[in-house]
Amino acid sequence: MTDLQDLYQELILDHGRRPRNFRALDGATGNAEGYNPLCGDKVKIFVKMDGDIVKDISFEGAGCAISTASASIMTETLKGKTRAQAEELFQTFHNLVTGRQAQLDAPELGKLAVFSGVSEFPIRVKCATLSWHTLRAALNGEGEVISTE
Ligand code: ZN
User: Is the pTM of this model over 0.70?
Assistant: First the structure.
C-alpha cells in the first residue's frame, strides 16, 4: 500500500464512522430512496434547491463503510454546485470507480478521488455509486425509490 492509499482508506473510514450531513432536511425540495440489494446498503437523499443551485443536501440510511462514506463526501462536495455540475461530477465519479477515468486527469473530483481504489473491486462499485443514482432521482422528483438492480 502506498501512503496515498493509506490516506484514502483513512478518509473513507472516517466518513463511514462519522458521516457528514447525516440528517433529514427541513424544507427539502426533493428526496429519494436508494437500495443496493447486493450489499444491503440503503440511503435516502434530501436536496433543497434554490433555482438551479444545490443549496443544501443531506442523507440518512444504513450501509457499508463505502456507501456511507460516498454519500457523506458527495453531500460535502455538491453543496453550492449547480444541477449541471452535479450531473457532470456524477459522470466523472462513475468513470473513476469503474476504471475509465484516471484520477489525475480529473482534479475537479477533489475528495471524491479517495474512491479510485473501488475500480479494483467491481462488486463495490454499486456501494460507491448508490448515493449518486439516488441523488439523480431526488433532483428529478419527490419520493422516488430506486434500486441498483
Ligand atoms: Zn455496500
Answer: yes
